[in-house]
Amino acid sequence: IEEAWKSLGISKEKAEITTFNRGILIVKVSSNAYMQELWFDKNNIIEKLNSRLDGRVKDIKFKLAGGY
What's the whole-model pTM score? Predict the structure, then answer.
């Protein structure tokens, strides 16, 4: 998962995988603005990840770093 995520070119400072369980990828994001940008591109991101991971990613949940 980590290698596929890195291949997207998203910097670790902006967004980082926290967990992957049952097809759900949880990503910690550095700012609301960047979270919104990723959310709008979520389907494309899932498609790109699945091209490398044989369809293992079903959804991505974005969480604001430091948020509760």
Answer: 0.89
DSSP conformational letter for 57: -
* Residue whose entry in the numeric block shows the structure tokens 């498609």: 47
Q: What is the number of structural domains in the chain?
A: 1
The CATH number of the domain holding residue 14 is 3.30.300.180
Domain span at 41: 2-64
**Residue 5: closest CA among 63, 62, 48, 41:** 48
Summarised one tens digit per residue, pLDDT across range 3-37 is 999 999 998 899 999 999 999 999 999 999 999 99
Under a CB-based contact definition with an 8 Å cutoff, are residues 30 and 14 in contact? yes
Of the candidates 64, 56, 67, 66, which has an alpha carbon nearest to the alpha carbon of residue 24?
56
